Amino acid sequence: MKERAQNLLKTIQTDILSNRLILPSLPEVAIRVRELAADSDCSVSVLEREVAKDAAIAARLIKVANSSALRRGIPVTALKQAIMSLGFNQVRSLVTQLAILQTMRGSKDTARLQGFVASGLHISALCHNLAAQHVGLDAELASLGGLLHDIGKLPLRDFLLQRVELSKLERLQFELVLHPYVGAMLLKHWGMTGELVQMARWHEAVLRETGKAEPDYVDVVIAANILHYGTQKGRYAKYAEMSIPAIIKCTSKSTDALNVSQAEQRMQLSQALASA
C-alpha cells in the first residue's frame, strides 16, 4: 500500500508539472485582498474597491458582518462599513474563506462537498478558539488553516476517479494517505504562508511531538481534528487510549466562561459563512 501510494504521488507531481492535472486557482480577489490587508499603508477605501470587484464576495462579507457573532449593534448595509467593523485582519481571513468556499461550490460531488465544508468550518472554529488561548498564535490564521487543512482532497478525488483500476475502497484509502501531500502542494500553488502549508501537510501526524511546551499551528489543527471527530470510532479510534501531545498542549489553558462564549460565537460565524 505504501509503495503504491508513493507511486501515485509521483504520478500526481508529474501530472501537475506537465499540466495534465490542473490545480484549482485561488480567486484573484482573495489574492489581492490578502496582499492589501497585510500592507500597513493600505486604506479602507482601497481595500473596499478591491473587494467590490467580486460582487458575490462583497455581498457575502456584508452578510457575514451582520451575523450575530459579529454584530456591533448597528446593521451593516455597506461594504466600507463592514470592513471598518471587522478590521483588516478579519476581512483578510473572511474574504479568503469566502473565496475558497465559492470555489468549492463548483464541485460536481455536491453531497460529499456539503459534509466536507461543514467539517472544515467546524474545525476552523475549533482552531480559532484553541489558538486564541495562546499568546504566540494568531487565531485568524489558525481559523483559515482549519478550513484549508483538508483542501488536498478536492483535486485528489478528481485524480483518483480517473484511475479506473482502483476500487472505491482503494480510492478512499489513497485519499486518506495522500491528501496532506496534495494539500501542501495546492497551498504552495496559491502562495499561502508556510504555517498554512504545514497545517495541511502534517495534520494527520497525530502523535507529532515538537519538544516544546507551547503549541504551534500544526498542534492546533491536530487537536481540532481530534475534538471534531472524536476517538470513539472512525479513523482516530486507535488513539483512544493514547496521550496526544497536541491535545495536551492546546487544552492546557483553563476553559472559562469567556472561552466557551468565544467558541459559541465562532460557531455562529461558521454557520454564517456556510450560508453566505
UniProtKB/TrEMBL annotation:
<dbReference type="InterPro" id="IPR013976">
    <property type="entry name" value="HDOD"/>
</dbReference>
<dbReference type="InterPro" id="IPR052340">
    <property type="entry name" value="RNase_Y/CdgJ"/>
</dbReference>
<dbReference type="Pfam" id="PF08668">
    <property type="entry name" value="HDOD"/>
</dbReference>
<protein>
    <submittedName>
        <fullName>HDOD domain-containing protein</fullName>
    </submittedName>
</protein>
<feature type="domain" description="HDOD">
    <location>
        <begin position="23"/>
        <end position="206"/>
    </location>
</feature>
<dbReference type="InterPro" id="IPR003607">
    <property type="entry name" value="HD/PDEase_dom"/>
</dbReference>
